[in-house]
Design goal:
This protein has 365 residues and is of the alpha/beta class. The chain is built from 12 helices and 9 strands. The protein has a single domain, classed as Spore Coat Polysaccharide Biosynthesis Protein SpsA, Chain A (Alpha-Beta Complex). It is globular and about 55 Å long. Bound molecules: 2-acetamido-2-deoxy-beta-D-glucopyranose (2 copies). The site of one 2-acetamido-2-deoxy-beta-D-glucopyranose has 3 residues, from loops.
């Protein structure tokens, strides 16, 4: 009798253990989730179990304890040397607050190169993505928090993407930050050979493609946007830089960004009302120009058209403007040594004219 009760108890507790096991011990290496209906992240590793909202830090950046744990893991685990693999990969980091309309174009860009890239997506959880993710984007959504333009939350999101990509695959050697409005201008092999020149023996010294500008007219206003001396002593005005947030960082610089806290504490300070602030255009170029000026190409691979910009928005291309000639023009840069690899900003209606010239123009180098 006693034995029967005992066996029964044992059976019940074993069953309970089996049933509960996946919940009490999530696999620690699992960093990516599958996109659900309106929940960007279902499965989460230790570093990705974000609280429902806010995260509750004073600056409103939404960087909480979970983020800090993630960044700490990069400090501990994501060494710089491991990426010098036989076949380094490109990490494509998509920062979005709406549907990834151009996913079909990216799929064609990625096709046949699955062992050379990874995709990661930070989708603002307050925005509802209606399009189902295409294969390269499925399960690639990192735990995300709300983002706002001209706000340190965009820096926080980029740091989250970098950290997730660093931890997820040691072969990720370049990290290209893109948005849902970005499109490729060349084939994947062309991008790959640009980033990893076949003859370059020392991949660990490859440059970061980040725009670093000085003496732009808006800089004095941007510098004091948090108060007259708010950036001192860490960032004197003559070290303050500006550049597009759409960079392609080498791995050692991605690690540097995620580990960095000193300047980040300054750039995440709230901006005064009615100021032009745009911290996401200043933090990365200022930091990298201080830390490793010789390691930065000082230009971005992502073309943008600021002609007749309105309210800080660049020209947004619409379907009638898409043509083979536009692609040729956008590729050109002032440098004789490089072409632009990506371009923004494209309205969703550009998808079908872009697909129509994808194989004959865009991916034909
Ligand atoms: C840039 O945008 C302007 C309109 O704002 C347009 O006239 C011009 O053709 C665009 N340049 C390129 C290279 O697309
Ligand atoms: C090239 O440089 C000129 C002058 O600095 C600038 O106006 C133009 O926009 C640049 N073009 C590109 C494609 O970057």
């Amino acid at each position: 009798m006693t034995l029967t009760v005992f066996s029964l108890l044992l059976f019940v507790s074993l069953a309970a253990l089996l049933f509960l096991a996946p919940r009490v011990s999530p696999p620690p290496q699992k960093l990516l989730g599958r996109v659900g209906d309106d929940k960007p992240l279902a499965a989460a590793g230790v570093a990705f179990g974000f609280a429902a909202s806010g995260g509750g830090d004073a600056a409103g950046v939404g960087e909480g304890a979970e983020d800090l744990a993630l960044f700490r893991r990069v400090t501990l685990d994501a060494g710089e040397g491991s990426a010098v693999a036989a076949a380094p990969k490109v990490a494509f980091l998509f920062l979005t607050n709406s549907d990834l309309t151009f996913a079909p174009l990216w799929e064609r860009f990625f096709a046949g190169h699955g062992d050379r890239f990874n995709v990661y997506v930070h989708a603002d959880p307050t925005a509802r993505l209606l399009l189902p993710p295409t294969p390269s984007f499925r399960g690639r959504f990192v735990a995300a928090k709300p983002t706002r333009r001209g706000d340190p939350s965009l820096i926080a999101a980029a740091r989250r993407l970098l950290a997730a990509a660093l931890l997820h695959d040691a072969a990720n050697a370049y990290f290209a930050l893109l948005s849902q409005h970005c499109v490729p201008l060349h084939s994947f092999p062309r991008l790959y050979n640009t980033l990893f020149p076949p003859r370059a023996a020392h991949h660990h010294r490859l440059p970061s493609y980040i725009e670093v500008l000085t003496a732009e007219p808006q800089m004095p206003d941007r510098y004091v946007a948090r108060g007259e001396d708010a950036m001192l002593p860490e960032v004197p005005f003559d070290r303050f830089r500006i550049g597009s947030q759409f960079f392609t960082l080498a791995r050692r610089h991605a690690v540097l960004v995620v580990r960095e806290r000193r300047l980040w504490h300054k750039f995440r300070l709230p901006c005064l009302p009615d100021t032009q602030c745009y911290p996401e255009e200043h933090y990365f170029p200022t930091l990298l120009d201080m830390a490793d000026p010789a390691g930065c190409a000082r230009y971005t691979l992502t073309r943008v058209n600021w002609t007749d910009s309105f309210d800080g928005h660049p020209h947004t291309y619409s379907a009638p403007e898409v043509s083979p000639r536009l692609i040729t023009e956008l590729r050109q840069s002032n440098s004789s040594t490089h072409d632009h690899m990506f371009a923004r900003k494209f309205a969703p209606d550009c998808l079908s004219p872009l697909m129509a010239i994808a194989d004959t123009v865009i991916f034909k180098d």
